[in-house]
Structures are given as C-alpha cells and as structure tokens.
Amino acid sequence: MKARPKCCSTRFWKPQQSDSQASRHREVSANRQVRAAQNCDNTVVALVPYDNRDARSPAVEPAPLAHVRGEPVLVHTLRGLLGSEVVDRVILAVPPELSPGHSAYAECIEALGPGAARLTQLYCGAGRTNAVRSAFAAHSLDEAEVVLVHDATRPFVPPSVFRSVVAAVRAGAPSVVPVQDVTDTIKVVGDDGTVLSTHDRSGLRAVQGPHGFATATLRRLVVQGGPGLDETVSDATVVAGHPNAIRLRTSFDITVAEALLAGDQAGGQQ
Asked: pTM, whole model, 2 decimals?
C-alpha cells in the first residue's frame, strides 16, 4: 500500500478516513470500474489555462513556448499530465485562432503524438477563471469528478504530486494545493525602507500546482459573481509539493530546472 502524502500546514488532510470517506472511496472505485468498462473513464480532468502574458506579441516569447531540454515548456507540461497515470483527459485553453502564438500551440499539441488523442482544445479568454467558465459552458467538465487546474509553466511536476492532490480531493477535501516550506528569511519592511522585524515563517508555505477541486466546488467558485480562481487559494487543503514543481517564467528559472533534473538523473531518481 502506498504511503499517504504528508501535509504541510495547520490545515491537515488526515491519513485516517472516516466511515463516510471510506464509503465514498468504495463508491468512486465502483464508478471508475463502470466508466472504464464503458470506455468513458474521464473522472480526472486537467485544465491548463493561459494568461495574458502568454498571449503577448510575437516579439516576446510566451513562457509556455520557451524551450527547455529541446522542447517547449508546454509540451513537457502536457506530457507530464498525460503520463501521470491519474489524469484521464486534458483540456488545453488556447488563444483565439488569430492571436499571436496560436500556431505555436498547435505545434505543441502535434508534438505529443498519440497522446494528443486525450487532449481537447478550448478557445477562450486568458486566465484561470475564464478557462474554467468556458469549460463548464462547453460541458467539457460534465463527466469530471476531480478537476486539476494546472499552470502551463510547471512542466516537471512529479506524478506523485498529481496523485496526492487527486487522492486528497477524493478523500473529501473540496480544494487542494501542493506546497513547500518557505526557507528564506522573511523581513517586514517599513515605508521608509528599513527592516522592522523578522516574520515568523513557520506558518508560511510556497504554493505550487496543480490546484485540485471537487467539480461541484469549482463550479461554485466560477459562477457569475463568484470569487473566481485567478488570485485565491483560500481554504485549500495542502499536500506535499516537490522542488521540481517550480514555475518556469524566466531563463534563470529554466536554468535552475535543468540543474535540478540533471541532479535527479545523476542520482538515479528518474
């Protein structure tokens, strides 16, 4: 039996399951078997939005299209989701056809080869909230039990992190994020630029991805007038993240990621 992921916050996902949670697990398992027999096992759907920075002019290469290890960041991200063994289907939000960079997104999908058969394109506006609202409007999430909203620029999230997020949602958490401890010293600085105090970092965590949701919870967040998703992860339960799950936004980020992955390979961890 695989060990449960450890929590990293005062809001714990407890390894022990209540009777109702155990019953829910049995129900989910039975439903998955039925759906698999019907060839419609889409209970875990990953949605990959794009943001305004990803739709800029061709003079500035969007971060998801920057190259790392010889391929665009987005290709690695999509391949990681499809190969996680827990994601049944991926929805990729893409800019409108006449937007800069649209053809590059199509090339990323083509690079996936046969894996692209489990991917659907969604034409919509930028941002997480727009992508999720558009997915619900298109009925693309009707079959989902768990939805993973995942940043296109987090290409090297290990499969274990995806599994932990999905397992926590299925155990009853409405919303789940992976996190890591904050190791830097945090200072409080006054308006005059002088250090006032050292912030206690024991309760601070760096949020990673994906952000997992029970489908009903996600729908409530993005309905008209809801808080949306672009800035908030309030009330999310946390599970352990991973150093390789960093966001790649700059050339420095890519250099760091390549160094981490090279270290993993040298240590025989991949």
From this structure: 0.78
